[in-house]
Structures are given as C-alpha cells and as structure tokens.
Amino acid sequence: MSAKPKIKRAPTKPALGSVGMEQLLAPAMSFSDFLATHWQKKPLHVANPARQSRFAQLFTLEQLLRLTEEKPLFFEQHVNAFRYDGRVKESGNPDDAEPASRKILTRLHKQGYTFQFHQPQQHIEQLWELLASMEKGFQSLCGANVYITPPDSQGLAPHWDDIDAFVLQTEGKKEWRLYAPIEELPMSYSKDLERSAIGQPVMTVTLQPGDVLYFPRGWIHEARACAGEPSTHITVSTYQSFAWGNLLAEALPAVVAKAMKTVPALRRGLPVGFLRANGLRASAQAEASSATAASAAA
C-alpha cells in the first residue's frame, strides 16, 4: 500500500479505519462470519444508510476536481476516462500530455465518460486508514481505485478481475449486475466480455450511499449509474496473486536450492540417457492412452 499521506485532514467524524472490516460489514454480519460464509465463495450486499455521511468523507466528484487544482494529475498515470455504450468501450483520454484539469474533466463528464482515479488513498487520510485496517484484517495488501460515472451512463463492459473486490458507494446510485464465474478463482483478469456469452445475472442490486458490495475474484460484473445524479464508488481490492499456487511458486525453488547445498545426492548428475529413455517412455504411454481412448469411443 502507498505511504501515508503527508497532508493530514482532521476528520469531522471518527475515521472508518478505526473499525475497519467490522464497520463495513455491519449490520449484516461479523468479519469471522463473513470469512466462513462468503469470502471467495459468493457476493454479499450490505446496506447501511447510517454510513452515508462517513462514506462521503472518502471520495466524491468534487474532491477529484479540487485535487486537479492542488497538484498536477495526468491521464493514464493518475486518471482514465472511458465510456461503454453496450457494444464498444471508448477511451476519452486526450492524446497530448496536458494535465487533467477541472475544465477537461468537467467536459468529459458531460460527454458521459466515467473516471477511474488511481490510488486515492494517497490523497485522503480516512481512506488510507481504512485500507491499513483492512490490510491488518486480511494480512494482505489492499489497493483502491475510484470510479465516477455520469448519470445514466456506464464506463466498463462486463468483465472479471483478478482480485477480491469491496465496492463502497460514496455518492449517487449505481445498478450492479453480477454473473456466475466462467472459471473458478482465475489468476488473471478478463478481456471485455459480450453479454451473449455470460448468461443472465445471478444478482442485480442498486447501491446507495453507505452501501458495500463484495464479490470474489472471477465473478463477472458490470455497473451503470442511475439517472438523476453522478455515481461515485471506491473499489478496494485485495488478495491479488495471493493464492496457494503463488506461495508454492515462490517457496519451492528456494527450498530446493537450499536442499542442494546440504544433500549431495541432489547434486549428482542425471543418469546418462535419462532424457531419451524417459522421453520415449512418456511418448509410448501417451500413444497407448490415445489408442485405448479411440478403441473405447469406437
């Protein structure tokens, strides 16, 4: 996670980070119950209007526009603009290197572009504290992006991600559609998907300020802002490349290297002709299996 912001903003209310996951899941369930029933298994929607004013401290459209006046923000590096019309996703990032000013962002917003703002926790202390608390609970790194969508608009095509996601709705309303995974807990994110290829949504929910939506890695999703006002939400991500396979891929080479230093047998050369003999044996076994399968099919 990023270093703590240098500029401290005294919150008008207690920071969310002081309670972390228990606060995000209230009043639905405890963190331990969540881990037992939903974590990496199925989505969870937690409605809590009492959080509305506290979530508004975390990020809004106006906060992004103010940040452009406090420090230079650049497209691609800090913010992206895109919109999706149901068929094609279009980028609104300018071709030149001009900073993302209030004027440019306001124009793009009126044209229906969604903003994706990277690492907002670098600028908002309350959000930094929340991510720090979540990292303590999960014992894994957490990251964040902000998504600001104009009314009655959509920024992204249906897709799945390579992270577990917690969506925090801070202003406006947004309708989410979640689809069953095509692959269980994939290790990489997907390309944009056609709706015809993903079936019907298994969960449709409209998030309001103060709401939290969790969905596991690999769940296909899309979201559209409701009419009437812009929608802002924060997606907190965790458990990226944090699976058993990732651990073994890191640990086993080190274990073998250490063993080779102390076990002479592991340092002995392979038998002469090893690759030829074992290669031919494997090839014969594969041919026999293919012949057996063909005979059974006939």
Question: Strands, helices and their partners?
Answer:
Layout lengths: L19 H6 L5 H7 L6 E3 L5 H4 L5 H10 L8 E6 L4 E3 L10 H9 L3 E5 L6 H14 L3 E8 L14 E8 L2 E6 L23 E5 L4 E4 L4 E6 L5 E8 L5 H19 L11 H24 L1
Antiparallel strand pairs: 1-9, 2-3, 2-4, 4-5, 5-11, 6-9, 6-11, 7-8, 7-10
Report on this model:
It is a single chain. Mean pLDDT is 89; it is low at 7-19. The chain is elongated. The longest helix is centred in the last third of the chain and has 24 residues, at 274-297. Strand 2 and strand 3 (89-91) form a beta hairpin. The N and C termini lie far apart (59 Å). The chain has 298 residues and is an alpha+beta fold. The chain has helices at residues 20-25, 31-37, 52-55, 61-70, 102-110, 125-138, 244-262, 274-297; strands at 44-46, 79-84, 89-91, 114-118, 142-149, 164-171, 174-179, 203-207, 212-215, 220-225, 231-238. Strands 1-9-6-11-5-4-2-3 form an eight-stranded antiparallel sheet. A three-stranded antiparallel sheet has the order 8-7-10, with no helix packed on it.
